[in-house]
Design goal:
73 residues; mainly alpha; 4 helices
Length: 73
């Protein structure tokens, strides 16, 4: 058997990963919805970070931490 054939056979027979979170949620009749990471349209935190970064870059003229905190507040 060639390596390519062996890898294809392994992929067909591999078990799906099982996560403790999924099992715990299933016990309580819930499911976990996994979203792609860093996708701005699906994860609200990405939109929030983009807003903060835009505001800081538009109004902050220094790179000092205290000045950035003043802009955010």
């Amino acid at each position: 058997m060639r390596k390519v054939d062996l890898l294809a056979k392994c992929k067909r027979h591999r078990l799906a990963p099982r996560y403790l979170l999924d099992e715990t949620l299933a016990q309580h009749s819930h499911t976990c919805l996994r979203l792609s990471q860093y996708h701005a349209e699906l994860n609200a935190i990405e939109l929030i970070w983009a807003n903060i970064k835009g505001k800081v870059s538009a109004t902050n003229m220094t790179y000092k931490y205290q000045d950035i905190l003043k802009v955010i507040d």
